[in-house]
Amino acid sequence: MDNFDKLKRQVQNYIFLLGGLTVIVMVAGSWFARRLYPSHDTLISVILLVVGLIAVWIVSLVLTDYSLKPLETIWRAILHVTPGHTGTAPPNLEQNKIGQELVTTLALQIYQLASSQPSNTPAEPTTISPRTTSTVSTKLTDDLPLPVFAVNKDQLIIFANEASLKYLGLTSQDVLQKNLYSVLDLMFSEEGTLDTWLQDCRANKAKDAHAWQRVRLKLADQTTLKQFDLAAAYSKDNPNGTEMLLALFDQTDKYSQDDQELDFIALAVHELRTPLTALRGYIEIFEEELAGKLDPEMNEFMERMQASAKQLAAFVSNILNVARIQEGQQSLQLQEENWAAIIKMAAENLSLPAKLHNITINYVIDAKVPTVGVDKISISEVLNNLLDNAIKYSGEGKIITISSIVNKEGLVETTVQDQGVGIPAAVIPSLFEKFHRNHRNQARISGTGLGLYLSSSLVKAHGGNIWIKSKEGQGTTVGFTVQPYASLAGTQKASDNKGITRNAHGWIKNHSLYRK
């Protein structure tokens, strides 16, 4: 339903936009009419009626064409595979401005259903060529402008159209009857990869469809990187042997630009570290040398300057860590640590901005919480980010509560609860995305939109989970889990019992051990 909900939101936004433009046209027409004919109310009413009818007519034409485009695409796909309509060209799935993922998955399922043979009809002998295969309907051919693959239950590619071969820079001999994972070494920006989805389908579903964004693929030359959105359709026990259809929507230019922007920002931010270190050093010297010599107002200025310097340092750290995670260069050294001490140290680091906002930080830490297996520096950044957000969004004179317990699964669960403005329910699912911020607050509250993304990546690298619960006007609770040190598998612990090394990365391999 995610793709359908996305289509609904796109149509709603478009209707809202057109409705707003219609209102603007009506208001503008009324203004001009009253300027031209200030004392002719009847004439003004006629002019407004004509302008309104014209505006509504134009809006209806545009809205009808826009909102019915996905239905037209599916209709053309059905005609394309319907006997007696051999002259009907396949729809161009890349031309849909809205509902592209939904339309693509539905079209792929239509093609897959059309390729199925009745169970009482013996399948034709298998023949493999770049253009035809007995396991896929001849309707699904090189007519499609986007890369399409068909995969059987042994995870062998049994069909690849011309667009896919051109996209990969390979020949049909390089692709057909080869293992899917040996040809498409996919990397995902989320834990739910193609392989995990396929395993779930095989265990629980007869038919299903799914889509992923920001999928990465290194081509055979190991230097060219492709980035695309991926749509998949699954059919269990298909008589023709086609278990899964894949379609790739190339977004290399768009996503590469995003990566380059982050790289540029990271490079620029890196240059801030030296002057920032010097600045913080001077502030500390001034605090020591001028202790007891400043009036209350000057003391407050020094505190605010120190708080700003710490905030800038946290910003620099976040940017550089996100860049490392994106490139798979962030390494964690998990060691046995006192969890209560880490929590209190993180809170102490943010005691100054909390003080400036008259915010009190309370601790509710269960005495039964054991030592944990964490990278102290990285997990402290998680706590710092969560506390910093809580302070920013709390307002003046509020209370922030940090709680920690051992949950039912035996994990150490920690929550940071504020009494601030809260978060709209529609925004919560996107908060862990890179650069995402609540548009209602971004104008008045500073931030980069990287803190929660970074926190999520680091918590998952620790083997934990992170989540948000919130209600507008009633505050927000952010929780995450880490593993007790004793629960980490003995084989993972270093021989000297000093720690465990893990990598934090933003990209997850689809399948590291494939069958050949």
* CATH domain fold name of the largest domain: Beta-Lactamase
The tally of strands reads: 15
The percent range for strand residues is 15-25%
Number of helices: 15
Helix content percent band: 40-55%
Average pLDDT number: 76
Let me know the largest β-sheet.
7 strands, antiparallel
CATH architecture of the largest domain: 2-Layer Sandwich
The CATH class label of the largest domain is: Alpha Beta
Instruction: Spell out the CATH superfamily of the largest domain.
Output: PAS domain
Query: What structural class do you assign from the helix and strand content?
Result: alpha+beta
Q: What's the short version?
A:
The chain is built from 15 helices and 15 strands.
Explain the overall architecture:
By secondary structure, the protein is of the alpha+beta class. It folds into 4 domains: 2-67; 71-250, 2-Layer Sandwich (Beta-Lactamase), CATH 3.30.450.20; 253-327, Helix Hairpins (Orthogonal Bundle), CATH 1.10.287; 331-505, 2-Layer Sandwich (Heat Shock Protein 90). It contains 15 helices and 15 strands. A hairpin with a 5-residue loop joins strand 10 (399-406) and strand 11 (412-417). Helix 1 (2-36) packs antiparallel against helix 2 and helix 11 packs across helix 15. The chain is globular, with a radius of gyration of 29 Å. It starts with a helix and ends in a 7-residue tail after the last strand.
